[in-house]
Amino acid sequence: MKVIVSDVAGMCFGVRDALAVLDGIAEPENVTIHGELVHNEAVLSQLASRGFKMVGESNRSTPPDTETVLVTAHGISDRERRRLQGAGKTLVDTTCPLVERAHQAARKLHEEGRHVLVIGRRGHVEVRGIIEDLESFDVVENASEVTTYATKRLGIMCQTTTPVRLAEEVRAAVARLNPAADIHFIDTICHPTKEHQNALEHLLDKVEAMVVVGGKNSNNTRELVRRCREKSIPAYHIQAAADLDPDWFDGIETVGLTAGTSTLDSSIAEVHEALLHI
Q: Is the dihedral of CA 261, 262, 264, 269 positive or negative?
């Protein structure tokens, strides 16, 4: 069986930079990570073994016990930042610069007096951080959710890991259903996400199946899997080499391998080796 690794796969600079910050912390037991640093179980397990405390993303209403709180790569709202600082916490900020750019775009649209449409996954921690600072907004997961809005000034921006084709579909639906509206779109899909998606597109015509490595809750990883299935390519979302089942590849001559933006290089290498063995 031939294995083709995507030209772009695995960890983006935002995740690498966040991990570098944590590598420089001398006393991890005195730091609480405010949520999941990244949506990757292997990374979270490593951080826990070093002694970092962690608060679940759905349990962040009570300020952590430690004086130092680390803001994850997914970012937080200004409202949440003020709440933590008001509780006397010192913040170590590892927010991805491209997530911060998405926050700035949302603020700009809000300041223009627009109803903000955030294209993204409802309930995702990055999306929650964006909308907590907005007064007039809707989260739109797909074009079928678009409606005719009461306001004639609309702003559209995206969760950073949104597929480009999804953003285009939503934009078209907004324009079609709101022909008289003044619409301002700001493209906040991050460049690493676009690179991963584009590399996958180039690979899909060359393989009979895909293995996609990444955390269960990783939005960008799940979008890669979804795109494979849209193209009728069997896709297997795994977290580690141990998750592979040789039976998946019976009769398969060529398989592709890619990974989400929070996947460790070592995880990709282990899966690659296991596929070659199969």
A: negative
Taking only the tens place, the pLDDT of each residue in 220-268 is 999 999 999 999 999 999 999 999 999 999 999 999 999 999 999 999 9
Residue positions counted in the chain:
278
Which amino acid is present at 139? V
Q: Within this chain, do residues 151 and 209 fall inside the same structural domain, yes or no?
A: no
Whether residue 188 contacts residue 101, with contact meaning beta carbons closer than 8 Å, is answered with yes
From the list 271, 192, 278, the residue with the least C-alpha distance to 9 is 192
Domain range holding 163?
A: 98-185
Shared domain check, 107 and 166: yes
For residue 10, what are the contacts with CB-CB under 8 A and spacing of at least 6?
Answer: 213, 259, 260, 261, 263, 264, 265, 268
Task: Tally the domains of the chain.
Answer: 3
* Residue ranges of the chain whose pLDDT lies below 50: none
Residues 231 and 169 reside in one and the same domain: no
Beta strand extents in 98-240 (DSSP E only): 115-119, 137-140, 153-158, 182-185, 209-213, 235-238
Chain position carrying tokens 């949440």: 80
Instruction: Give yes or no for a contact between 258 and 199, defined as CB atoms under 8 angstroms apart.
Output: yes
Token readout for 47 is 């951080």
Q: How are the residues of the chain apportioned to helix, strand and coil, as percentages rounded to the nearest 5?
A: 40, 20, 40
79 and 123 fall within a common domain: no
The domain that holds 141 is classified in CATH as 3.40.1010.20
